[in-house]
Specification:
With about 400 residues, the protein is an alpha+beta fold. It folds into three domains: about 120 residues; about 120 residues, Jelly Rolls, CATH 2.60.120; about 130 residues, Sandwich (Jelly Rolls), CATH 2.60.120. The protein has six helices and 24 strands. Strands 7, 9, 10, 12 and 14 form a five-stranded antiparallel beta sheet that branches. Strands 18, 20, 21, 22 and 23 form a five-stranded antiparallel beta sheet that branches. Helix 1 runs parallel beside helix 3.
């Protein structure tokens, strides 16, 4: 052994690390051990491998010119190597002090990313930054809302995330409508109130993609539509990006190509409000989206759907279903998973119209919502297109 790294130094490092991470493997390159990586330089001082962490110190012209490498598959990037080389140029630092400081950093990073064992890789230029998705759940403060009243719920994000789902309790689903959903003051629900039933535990999830930046306020407003007070219980689910390193090449931007893109808001929910419909009467409910919109789902709460049938859906003047007959609205209740409707794109100059009929003997209140995608790059409408033909075939089977 030459230079600053002597046997006592290695023993000191082992004692420091062993208390934290357990078994330590120590060897010399000269011993010919298979588990010792081949040196990248003239000679290998030592290998210290605590619980999967491999530290290699390769001799250069002098001790101060030693290349310090920490190879770690999931979290160590070239910044650690460059930082170590900079530390070694400081005459106040020794190899021992650098090893101890960087080993402590490894333990801190491992704890931060919640990784128990960290496999080694051979080359630092095989390390890349990657963003992974981590699910987060946010419980909003429950409330009791009196009859006919509304309640605003709000929270401030502590980190950027993408809001992907709203969940409510069964009681909330039966008795409330979501009147407003705002992110940083921007309204995410267009036109009218949305039945809370579409967010119930029994419902097929409505997948959202609303980006929420750090310190951004998210506001939800729920209205009690009954003549009694009810509990309001709401939970939000989202995805946040977590950075770590993996073995593989980087893209030109320095990040991997499979980044989670949080900052695109594409899902649009169009609420159809609440409409009084006399018994045995039909009604047209039209809306004009503020942006080019392609509906993929119609959600009608089951408690409402049992009293109605769907006569037609139109984009502009073009019917999206067969010309005659009607379908039970229960086909579109929140618990039914049906194929993507794939309606024709609705331009900002067009109306999206739903024709329904009250098939009961009593007056009923109709409420529903369209769910779809906003896309400024959708191709211009062409009749007939493949989506329209597929959609018509689906509806024929329902008649």
């Amino acid at each position: 052994m030459t230079g600053d790294l002597c046997q006592e130094d290695i023993d000191q490092i082992i004692r420091e690390v062993d208390a934290e991470v357990g078994d330590v493997c120590r060897a010399q390159a000269a011993e010919g051990r298979e588990d010792v990586p081949a040196p990248d330089g003239p000679g290998l001082y030592a290998v210290v491998a605590p619980d999967g962490v491999t530290i290699r110190v390769v001799d250069g012209q002098t001790t101060r010119e030693c290349l310090f490498l920490i190879m770690q598959k999931d979290m160590t990037e070239r910044l650690l190597v460059e930082e170590s080389a900079k530390m070694l140029r400081d005459p106040r630092e020794s190899l021992t002090s650098v090893l101890l400081k960087q080993t402590a950093k490894i333990r801190e990073l491992r704890s931060q990313y919640k990784l128990d064992r960290l496999p080694t890789c051979r080359r630092s230029d095989e390390m890349s930054i990657m963003r992974t998705k981590t699910k987060i759940e946010i419980e909003l403060e429950p409330a009791v809302v009196r009859r006919g009243e509304s309640r605003n719920l709000a929270f401030e994000a502590t980190e950027p995330f993408k809001l992907t789902q709203i969940s409510v309790s069964d009681e909330t689903a039966r008795n409330f409508v979501l009147a407003s959903l705002k992110v940083a003051g921007k309204e995410m629900i267009y036109r009218g109130a949305v039945p809370a039933a579409m967010f119930s535990p029994r419902a097929v999830p409505v997948e959202l993609d609303y980006f929420v930046d750090k310190k951004t306020v998210v506001e939800l407003s729920f209205a009690n539509t009954t003549d009694q007070e009810h509990d309001l219980e709401v939970q939000l689910t989202g995805l946040t990006k977590v950075s770590h390193l993996y073995e593989g090449p980087t893209s030109e931007s320095g990040l991997t190509d499979n980044l989670l893109d949080l900052e695109k808001d594409q899902v649009m929910i169009i609420g159809l409000g609440r409409t009084d419909v006399p018994p045995k009467q039909a009604c047209n409910i039209s809306t004009q989206p503020y942006s080019r919109f392609k509906a993929s789902r119609l959600v009608i709460p089951a408690e409402i759907a049992e009293h109605f049938s769907v006569i037609d859906m139109k984009v502009g003047r073009n019917s999206q279903v067969v010309a005659t007959g009607s379908m039970p609205a229960m086909v579109f209740n929140e618990t039914v998973r049906i194929p993507n409707l794939k309606l024709d794109p609705c331009d900002v100059s067009q109306f999206l119209t739903l024709s329904i009929e009250n098939i009961s003997d009593l007056p009923q209140v109709f409420s529903a919502a369209w769910v779809g995608m906003v896309d400024q790059n959708l191709e211009e409408y062409k009749e007939p297109d493949a989506d329209s033909r597929q959609n018509r075939e689906f509806f024929k089977g329902m008649l």
